[in-house]
Specification:
periplasm, MucB_RseB, signal, six-stranded antiparallel sheet, about 280 residues, mainly beta, MucB/RseB_C, Phosphorylase Kinase, domain 1, 3 helices, globular
Length: about 280
């Protein structure tokens, strides 16, 4: 699940649904490896023609999240918890999705700082064919499910497909390749993060906003810090499983807008936002 799917060439269609919109949305994903580098196209099949294009890292380059999932954390520091110290994993039995044999895996958090996941994983490839993310009351926050999967696509056909009318792309990754040591943000300090979450990396996004990212291997959250003037809005917004908590920070006589975004409970995001300071 953490390694093999990165090396595969495949295309498939899946449905997606979240709690704020009961209607099903449909997508097509094209994934291939060229010259040792991952590429991906995610196409919306409903509404306006649009797609997201991503060029990833070289094969063999493992993110911290991948290493956490695979249990390769001994070299990263004893302060990182093992996955089985954060979640209780239960094999729920065999399942058939998109015509393929798979196994259902339930990940139940051992604290109140993350959500539960029900993952159906392809037996042959490790691809997640179906995923449900649920809240503390077992209500689904979002879910997706493959309806077809082709593991032998024509790569030339995939690469030469015309671009959608609306296209967004990403060519860089936040985390470094095969990190061997934990690091911290250059300018900001989070006095509290949920147990087991590790700092992945940082970058500056539009308008000089600092973005910090953390993961426990299954779940991620990002913190956006932006200098601000005037009144700073505070509150909570959500779409499906993705939550955004907005807060303010005063540091060295300046005001900053803090936004914590992730698939985490609101109490987690609020506590993170309230424990940010400068270095």
């Amino acid at each position: 699940m953490a390694s093999v799917p990165h090396t595969l060439n495949y295309q498939g269609s899946f449905t997606y649904q979240h709690k704020d919109n009961p209607s099903l949305q449909s997508f097509r994903i094209l994934h291939w490896v060229e010259n040792g580098v991952e590429h991906e196209r995610l196409q919306h099949l409903n509404g306006t023609e649009r797609e997201f294009v991503r060029s990833g890292k070289a094969i063999g380059c493992e993110s911290l999240g991948d290493q956490l999932l695979q249990g390769k954390i001994s070299q990263l520091g004893a302060n990182l918890a093992r996955m089985d110290e954060l979640y209780r994993f239960e094999i729920r039995g065999p399942e058939r999705v998109a015509g393929r044999e798979a196994t259902a895996l339930l990940a139940l958090p051992l604290d109140a700082y993350r959500h539960s996941s029900l993952l159906t994983i392809d037996n042959e490839t490790g691809l997640v064919l179906k995923s449900w993310l649920v809240d503390e009351s077992a209500r689904p926050l979002e879910r997706y499910q493959f309806i077809d999967l082709d593991l032998s696509p024509d790569l030339e056909s995939i690469q030469q497909q015309p671009a959608a009318k609306l296209q967004r792309s990403a060519t860089s990754q936040l985390s470094e390749c095969n990190p061997s040591a934990l690091k911290q943000s250059e300018h900001w300090r989070l006095a509290w993060v949920p147990p087991g979450f590790a700092f992945v990396g940082q970058r500056q996004v539009r308008n000089q906003i600092d973005m910090l990212m953390y993961t426990d291997g299954l779940t991620t959250f990002s913190v956006f810090i932006e200098a601000a003037t005037g009144a700073i809005p505070e509150g909570v917004a959500s779409r499906g499983a993705t939550l955004a908590v907005m807060d303010s920070l005063s540091y060295q006589g300046k005001s900053y807008r803090i936004t914590v975004v992730g698939e985490i409970p609101v109490v987690t995001a609020q506590k993170i936002a309230q424990n940010i300071g400068g270095i």
